[in-house]
Design a protein that fits this description.
The complex is a heterodimer of chains A (474) and B (384). With 474 residues, chain A is an alpha/beta fold. Chain A folds into three domains: 191 residues, 3-Layer(bba) Sandwich (FAD/NAD(P)-binding domain), CATH 3.50.50; 145 residues, FAD/NAD(P)-binding domain (3-Layer(bba) Sandwich); 74 residues, Arc Repressor Mutant, subunit A (Orthogonal Bundle), CATH 1.10.10. Chain A is built from 14 helices and 22 strands. Chain B has three domains: 177 residues, FAD/NAD(P)-binding domain; 54 residues, no CATH class; 100 residues, 2-Layer Sandwich (D-Amino Acid Oxidase, Chain A, domain 2), CATH 3.30.9.10. Chain B is built from ten helices and 18 strands. In chain B, strands 1, 2, 8, 9, 10, 11, 17 and 18 form an eight-stranded mixed β-sheet that branches. Chain B has an eight-stranded mixed β-sheet with strand order 5-6-4-13-14-15-12-16. Chain B has a two-stranded antiparallel ribbon with strand order 3-7. The longest helix of chain B has 19 residues. Classes of the chains: A alpha/beta (474), B alpha/beta (384). At the A-B interface, helix 11, strand 22 and helix 14 of A face helix 5, helix 8 and strand 16 of B. Strand 22 of chain A pairs antiparallel with strand 16 of chain B, so a sheet runs across the interface.
Amino acid sequence: MATSPYDVAVVGAGPAGLAAAAAALAGGARVALIDAGRQPGGQYWRHRPGDLGAVADLHHDLRTFRALVAGAAGAVTFPGHHVWTMSGSAADGFVVRSVAGDDPRGTAELAARSLVLAPGAYDRQVPFRSWDLPGVYTAGGAQALLKGNEVLVGRRVVVGGTGPFLLPVAAGLAARGARVVGVYEANGPAGWARHAGAVARVAAKLTEGAGYAAALARHRVPFHARQAVVAAHGDDVVEAVTVAKLDHEWRVVPGSERVVECDAVAVGWGFTPQLELPLALGVGTRVDADGSLVVEVDEHQRTTVPGVYVAGEACGVGGAALAVAEGEIAGTAAATATTGAGPAAVPARLRRRRRALRRFAAAMHAVHPVRDGWQTWLGDDTLVCRCEEVTAGEVRAAVEDLGATDPRTAKLLSRAGMGWCQGRVCGYATACLTASACGSAVSALDLQGVSERPIAAPISLGRLAGDAGHTGQQ
Amino acid sequence: MPTDAADVVVIGAGVVGAATAWYAARSGRSVTVVDRGSVAGGTTGAGEGNILVSDKPPGAELDLARLSSGLWRELAVEVGGFEYDPKGGLVVASTPAGFDALVALAAEQSAAGIETVVVPAGGLAEHEPHLTPSLAGGVLYPGDAQVQPMLAAARLLRAARAKGARVRTGVEVTGFLRSGDRVTGVRTSAGDLPASTVVNAAGTWGGEIASLAGVDVPVLPRRGFILVTEPLPRIVRHKVYAAEYVADVASDDADLQTSPVIEGTEAGTILIGASRERVGYDRTLSVRVLRALAAQAVALFPVLAGVQVIRTYRGFRPYCPDHLPVIGPDPRAPGLYHACGHEGAGIGLAAATGRLIAQLVDGERPDLDVAPFRPERFGPEVAA
C-alpha cells in the first residue's frame, strides 16, 4: 500500500501535536496526524467523544483547543493509533508503523518526509508503602477519569505529591462533589516568591493558579505544605493514608505522622516525558532541571537527527501553553523544510512566548523538586515495580549483592520494569534507588537505560506476522 | 590504584568470564575480573539462556555441551539463584523428509551419549498441547535446560567474590603488560593490573582484545533479535524449535536466517527467536526480522496470534569462521588464555569453558581435550 509520503507526520494530538499540525498545514504541507486517543486533545484536553460541553468547566483555555482543532482539520488523521515503531532518515524518508486500538487486525504504515513528535508525558511516580492498593491513583489518572469519563475516583479523596498540577486535580474533584480531605504538597509554595520575575511574565499562569486556589478555598479543601502521603493502608482497598511533615531532604519529621481516612488517593510528582519514539530514532537527550530525560532541540525545535522535530513535554515539561508554542514552531519549521524553503526565522512573538514560558517552567522545577528523601519512606518490602512485584530491597540487592552499577542492569537482574508497563511507572524510582545504592547521581545514560523501548506500544504476534506480506516503503 | 598482582585477570564480566572466575577462585586462585561495561552487559544480557545438547551434531562442540550441561546442573545447586530450569527441548519437523533427517541426527546424538526420544506426529500434543497439528513429528531432548543468563553471570561472580575474587566494572582494558613475549598483566583505564595469567573472555569483542595482545583471533558479530511477550500462564512447556534451526546455526550465509525458537520462562513471558544476520554492530531495529519471527512463532503455535509482544532486544553473537569457540592458552602470547567466540551457545558452554580454563591454568589435565578449540587454529600456518 505504498502511497506518496506525507510532508509531515505528526505523532500526538495533544496541545503540541495539534499546534504542529495546524502550523504545518498553514505552511502548505501535506500532514498526517496520528494519536492513540479517539479524540484529539491529548491528556490536557481529554474528553468523551463529542461531549466537550459536559466537562467544559474542568478545562482550561478551550478557545485555544477549538482553534487548534479547526486549524488541524486539513490533516489526514489516524485516531486510536498506537505507534509501535518508527524508522528512517531525512534522506530516505521515515516510516511510522502503528496499530489501531479497536480493530483487531488494524495496522497502518505511513511514509513521511519529516516527523514532528509530540508524545507528551505521564505522571512521575514515587513508590510508597502499599501504593499498590486499589484506590491509589496517579494525579493524572484521577484527572483523566474525571475529564474523560466523568468518574470520581472516590468520595473522600487525598491529593498529594508536588507541583502546581495538584491544584486543578483537587479543584476538579471538589467541583464534582468529592470531599477532598487535603492537598499535601511536599514542597513549600513560598519558594515561588524567589521566582516572581518568571511568574510575572506569564500573567495567565498567575490567574490560573489564583482561580484554583479560590476554588479550593470555596470547597474548604485544606492545603498542607511540606507534607506528604508516605504510606497507604487497607486490606483490599485503600482505607486510609499516613501523612507526615517532611524536612528539607524529605525525610519524615519524627512524630509528625497522622493517619487520614479516605477511600481514594491521587498522587503526582511531576511528569515523565514519553521518550521511546524519539529515542528509537536516536535523538540527542539531556537531563532537565526536574530530573527528567528530555530531547535536546534547537531554536526551530529540531532534534539532533535531521528531519525529526520534537515539541511539548518531551523536550522539557512545561505545560500546555508552552507545548502549543513549541508545536507551532516545530510545525512551521517542518513544513518549510519539506516544501523546499530553508527555515525562516522564528517569529519574535513565538520566540518571546516560548522564552517566558520556559522561564516559568524552570521556576516551577526549582520550586517543586523531588528530593531523594522519599527513599527513606520505603521498607525493604515496599513494591517498586507493581507489574513484576519487585521490592525496594530487591532493587537494592541487585546493586549491593549482584553488582549492578546502572539502572538497566538493576532492572534486568531484579525484573523491576520488565512487566506489562515496561518500566513506565517504576523506571524513575528504579534509576533513583540504583544511583543511591551506588552512591552516585542519576545520569542521562541511566535514564536512557530505563526509557528505551524499541517496541513503543504492544503489538500482537498475529498483527506483526500478518504484516509480513507487504513491507511497503523500504 | 591497586597494583597487587593477581594470579588471574579475567577480561569480561559476562557469563564465560563469570564461570572462569568462579572455577579459578574455587581452586584457590586470586582472581580479578574487569569489564568496561557492567555485569553481563554484552551478549550475555541479550541471550535466552539456553543450555542445549540438542542443536549440535556429534563432535567436539557436542562433547563440550555435554560436559557443560552436567556442570550447570551442579552449579544450580552449588551457586543457584539463576532460575535453572531443566525443561527439555522439543525439536519439530514440518515435513516427512525433515522428520527423517531429524530422527537420523537424533540416532547419531544418541550414540554420542545424548538422551533422545523420537515423538511421532500423534504424540506431540502430549508434550506441547498448543503446537500446530500439522507437524510431521519431533524429537524430545530431556537434557536441554535454561537459565536466566544475567542472573547466572551475576550469581557466579558473587560466588567468586565470596571466595576472594574482585570484580571491577567500568574498567576498560587498553593494552597488555609484557615481559618479552610473555603476557604479565593488563593495562586498564584504571591503571595496570599485573597477573601471571590473563583470560580473554570478552565474547564478541574477544577479537579486539586479542589484537591488543598482537594475536589474531577471528571473532565477528552475528546479530540476533528476540521478541518477548506479555506474561502468560505457561502455554509453552519446553524449548521448542524447528529442525531448520540446526542448519541455520551452522550456516555460512551472511544473509538473514530465521527459524522459530520458542520457549516459556519462569517469569511467564515467552521468548521468540531466532534470527541470524551478519551486519556488524548495527543496532537498528529491523522490522523485517521481527515480522519473520512473529510469523514463524504463530505458524508453530497458532494460539500465540493474539498474544502481545511487549519488548524486543538484540544482541551480537560472537562467531568464528568454523563456528567453534576459542578455548585455551595462546602459544603466540604465553600467559594469555582465550575463552570466547561461543556464538549463540555461550551461556550453555560457559560452565565447561570456565572449568577447562581453570584446569589448564592450574596445570591439571582438563576434563576434555581442548585441541579443537585452540586459538591459533585460524593462523596462517593452518590456512596455508
